[in-house]
Amino acid sequence: MKNRNCKQILFVFIFSLSGLFTFGQNQIKVTFINDIKELPKNLMYKGKVKQAFHWVDKMGDNFVLMTETGEYPSKNESYDNYRDAELYAYHFLLKSDSIKQIWKIYDFIKNCPVEIKANFIKNTFQVTDLNRDGIGEIWLMYKVACYGDVSPSEMKIIMFQGHRKFAMRGRSKVKLSENEYEGGEYKFDNAFLNGPSKFRAFAKQLWNNNLLETWE
Question: How far is it, in rounded angstroms, from Cα 83 to Cα 93?
């Protein structure tokens, strides 16, 4: 009985190590930056920082900032009481005490007279290494919408590996009645369609996990 228990413990231990090894190959350790004062100096960005992250891969010291403006009055005088909202994401690389911007995401809603949304979806930012080349695949997911009723939002997954951009675009899904839904459809861009199947599989999982619209 004692030998059997030892074997069971050894099996669990080996299984745990195996899980950690697999996770380590597909997921890069990312640090959430709580205080923007911890960011490198002289970063140029627009909007209010909602989330900031740091990690190290073959490219070097990486920083991603996700910012939102919130809603504000439209500047066009023809649209009285209309509002705009914007969001941005930036990838910076720190090398030899100098900062280089690798890419920027920008999206927006303009001249909206009703409810407005331009927000990153909580807990969806990830850095993976699905193709195991040592360079992180950076995943961001967000919604933009101008709506006056219960309707889907425009929803997007943007993934970058280095300078290369991958996009998955569609709509969130809303429940209209007990058995009736609207939205949920999506399309991959050519980068995703021609890229590794692992990328599309991961994107679909991320999409489905955040598909259903919730109202706060």
Answer: 34
